[in-house]
Here is the input.
Amino acid sequence: MSYIAGEYDVAVVGAGHAGCEAALAAARLGMKTLIFSISLEAIANMPCNPHIGGSSKGHLVREIDALGGEMGKNIDKTMIQIKMLNTSKGPAVHSLRAQADRKRYQAEMKHVLEKQENLEVKQGEIVNIEIKDGKVVSLETDVGAIYKVKTIILATGTYLKGKIFIGEYSKESGPDGVAAANKLSECLKKIGIDLVRFKTGTPARINRRSIDFSKMEIQKGDEGIEAFSFENESKDFEQVDCYLTYTNEETHKIIRENLHRSPLYAGMIEGTGPRYCPSIEDKVVRFSDKPRHQAFVEPIGLDTEEMYIQGMSSSLPEDVQIALYHTIPGLEKAEFTRPAYAIEYDCIDPSNLKLSLEYRGIEGLFMAGQINRNFWI
Ligand SMILES: Cc1cc2nc3c(=O)[nH]c(=O)nc-3n(C[C@H](O)[C@H](O)[C@H](O)COP(=O)(O)OP(=O)(O)OC[C@H]3O[C@@H](n4cnc5c(N)ncnc54)[C@H](O)[C@@H]3O)c2cc1C
Here is the structure.
């Protein structure tokens, strides 16, 4: 049974990085604002590498900060290593990158949202959006709460009809085992929004105690680097070390021999993926002349032994993943805490948006973040 739960200026669907900034900006401008997340534990989650900034993204964080956003301030509070990338090149491409304590980053952002005046934080899945005469009217949660709103910002990330793949195995799921949003896509199609499938992936996580760091190159953070936010001073703190190791011919041989078991190569995945984060099997196929690829080993927080293996994203079956990771120096005895996986989800074609990110033809409906399919595919 549905009921009217209230009237608001702005509702943000999604509390990932895009949704958090959108909701805070609206509330700080004095709008009565709501933000929804399927799970409040997943607020500002980093489902892949727990870092902020980096090549081409460090600039974006600074721009968000200049506009009064939270991301820069939040990473300044929760970073465990900081580095300026590309310093061998000109200053235009220098890029600040900070490794985050993933759980602390989430907890801090959740707390900022909870304390923000004009903003209500709610756990719930949005299943329906009502449009009347080409304008947004209301949205509804899975438990039947209807909120009348003037503006909706969809920031649903990788959750719409999310499906994960590990070799031949697949299941409906959002990232990190959080439930997918399975109902909103049908509603979006009904109101005339074209959806496309997209895919991305993430590497395995490994228990630190099973890694032999003596076979890897140490990657230290930089000293005396400026803060991300213009409001903060540079700070000294005890930085964690990251490590670098490489794949080799044996790794590549295992990948080539098992490509038929990759859902991407076997045709189980319909969606295309972004060029900027290819899986290790993509790299081995596309750059077959390269004898090795980098694998960075990075801590994901101070209160956990889980390490992220950057560069080793994969959708191969778990047994193949274990075999190929074990060929890499230092990872011979790697103990998996979570296997790598690919995720496929519904998103929109951003060429249907105005420059304001409002969907053409639907007044008051905006799209932010990963729901907007990457152009560079
Ligand atoms: C496996 C994996 C690998 C990735 N790799 C990279 C990478 O290498 N580089 C990169 O830049 N990005 C990567 N991403 C994308 C990453 O998700 C984004 O960078 C970032 O998290 C997107 O932020 P967002 O705010 O758009 O969405 P998300 O962080 O995905 O947040 C979406 C939010 O929407 C909520 N939501 C969705 N549907 C509903 C609904 N119907 N009702 C209520 N709430 C809803 C969710 O609960 C969540 O709070 C990866 C993602 C995954 C899952």
